[in-house]
């Protein structure tokens, strides 16, 4: 039952969708052949699109990362969407509807050499209702003779038409300036974080071996480790040299003093644990391999997952583990660690020092995953194939469609799927599992959020 409880807690967390997007989205709409793809490639400088050209793989035009003047944003080519509406006009209008409700700004592309068609007018009518900014690009203005035709596009009621030539690059800088102005300012990605040593928390239930491990890692003779620069009185953190790198072990004052929590203070112990996890980037969760996995262990793991920290599992007291215990332990871990199958397990003994040097590489791997971002184009190339092979289950008679996705954040890696309907937790777990099969992310939680267009 306790395992189910852990599951439910983490489940609740997943349902709490809606991470702040660190990267705003621009959707590009318009009739076929007006030059949307050409323009998208122009906006991208064709960097990412090239990555996508895998022979034998049908490549939908979906979503890519773009950057202009240091501002990153995601470009979505709605030409890749199949809205199911019948007739060209209906289809393009439906794309515009979806664009309006998913993107932060919309770019309507019109072919200036043709002028505004009835389809363009219908789409403009839809877009005039948009609460988000809408930009109008008059494309295929390869030379100045078309400027009069450009002016006539004011009639679409979307403001000033910007004359561009996607083919020749005319005014693409001006267009990008306007796009970046229209998009909301993005909150910074997890950023590079504070410089200096990576922050590690050492947590686990009482008597699991935290003090012993810290002492082993810092050299047994030195009870007090190097004080962190700048803190002269009672430094709470320890700087520890592991595998040629300095790490900052957070909140270790209690461990060094070997202040052991008396009974009844479990609540405070858990607050301390929580504080240490919050202060860290990566957490070493110590488990006592010689004893059955307990509810307390699972609570600590839940805290780590909820806090979104990278994680390494250290199975301590391995010197006490015999053949029989090993067999039992495997089964306990299979059952107990279902929510953290991605965490690396290192079998150690703080007492003998066995394998403690395997911790540093595991920490590094976990942090690399925690910091990692999959480019939008690569993500969507993979996702569109996954969804084509295994579409989300029908709900209320409707088949939810995933329009596109971006990895909106790192630390922890967070995917946002833009959909036309709710995706069940089971399907999101499936997406996560497949995502890990394809991209790895060992040692880090990965969050999957869903943004249903309203
Ligand atoms: P989409 O269907 O809207 O994505 O349009 P494409 O990007 O596939 O372009 C359709 C056609 O228009 C292609 O043959 C492009 O080479 C051409 N095209 C795109 N932009 C321009 C432009 O600025 N000038 C001219 N002359 N042709 C263009
Ligand atoms: P803490 O409460 O998590 O800081 O745990 P301690 O480091 O104080 O360890 C609790 C007890 O477990 C002490 O008696 C340690 O000597 C013992 N211990 C710690 N690590 C190991 C280990 O790897 N093997 C064995 N056999 N005993 C250990």
UniProtKB/TrEMBL annotation:
GO terms for molecular function: GTP binding; ribosome binding. It comes from Amycolatopsis alkalitolerans. SMART domains: AAA. PROSITE patterns: G_ENGA. GTP 1 binds at residues 30-37, 77-81, 139-142. Belongs to the TRAFAC class TrmE-Era-EngA-EngB-Septin-like GTPase superfamily. EngA (Der) GTPase family. Gene3D superfamilies: 3.30.300.20, P-loop containing nucleotide triphosphate hydrolases (3.40.50.300). GTPase that plays an essential role in the late steps of ribosome biogenesis. This is GTPase Der.
